[in-house]
Amino acid sequence: MDSVNLSPRLAAVASFVPKGARLADIGSDHAYLPAHLLLKSHIDFAVVGEVAKGPLENARQELKRQRLLAATALRLADGLAAVTDDDQVDTVTIAGMGGILIRDILAAAKQRGQSFTTLILQPNTDEQVVREWLVQHGYQITHERIVQEDKHFYEIIVAKPGNQTLSAQDLVFGPFLRDEQSPAFKAKWQKEADRISLIFERLTAAGKADTPAYQQWQARFQDIQEALS
Ligand code: SAM
Q1: Which residue of 13, 16, 23, 29 sits with most ligand 1 atoms within 8 Å of its CB, as the best mutation to test the pocket?
Q2: Which residues is 154 bridged to in the sheet?
Q3: Which of 91, 88, 96 has the alpha carbon at shortest distance from 28?
Q4: 93 with 120: CB under 8 angstroms?
Q5: For residue range 43-73, what is the model confidence (pLDDT) as tens digits?
Q6: Separation of CA 32 from chain center
Q7: pLDDT tens-digit map of 161-176
């Protein structure tokens, strides 16, 4: 992967960035995502935020190689503290981090009084935590996509300011993903159902089939069956 040829995961994130957006890519590492969008003239400005010096240096090198330094503001900062009012950022991408970290970055931004027109989030884990935070803090989910890369499944969640009520099932499976029933969605949750079946076997073999833990797995298994039906 490089700035020209994004991975399917980052290409899916990029596909949701509105044309002409003023972008902040938080946790940018190599800056492939903003560099790709700048090279295509899809955007003309991006804040590239990184909490760690090494990845920020990776970003600087990539942007220099692509002659894009002038179109970017490289900032060493924790989360959305990288963004100032003067940047006039309207679109935020946060990809390739855990959902809890993404939630914490969004919560810290909210506490600082920052709000954005479009959030494009790609949690590697704990997608439910991200959805929960969004709907509890004045955002509504407008689009979702699930992408498979090798054995991994990645969910992309797009949110805009607004109100939304989501069921417990929507929070776990994603309101749009659940409706769409894409092959990647089915494969992700079938894989999880298969994993839980193995847990059932192990718990039963250990004489623990009548425990709260077993019942919790049973409830999750049933939810998955319903989401796939
Ligand atoms: N966004 C890129 C992608 O999706 O391919 C890079 C993902 S990389 C796995 C995660 C990056 O997030 C790391 O470079 C890490 O330093 C950065 N990061 C972690 N916590 C952060 C925070 N609180 N603020 C900014 N960057 C953070």
Answers
A1: 29
A2: 147
A3: 96
A4: yes
A5: 999 999 999 999 999 999 999 999 999 999 9
A6: 16
A7: 999 999 999 999 999 9
Closest CA to 76 of 59, 61, 89, 94: 59
Q: Could you give the dihedral angle defined by the CA atoms of residues 17, 21, 18 and 147, in that order, rounded to the nearest 10 degrees?
A: 0
Residue 27, ligand 1, Cβ within 6 A: yes
Which distant-in-sequence residues (6+ apart) come within 8 Å of 65 by Cβ?
none
> Containing H/E element for 215?
helix 212-228
Amino acid 4: pLDDT: 85
Q: Kindly state the tokens that stand for 212.
A: 């709260």
The residue behind tokens 């479009």 is: 118
**189 C-alpha vs ligand 1 centroid, how far in Å?**
26
CA distance 204 to 5: 48
How many Å lie between the centroid of ligand 1 and the Cα of residue 188? 24
Ligand 1 closest atom vs CA 105: 23
Atom of ligand 1 nearest to the CA of 95: 4
The CA-based diameter of the chain, rounded to the nearest angstrom, is 64
Closest approach atom of ligand 1 to CA 104: 23
144 lines ligand 1 (CB under 6 A): no
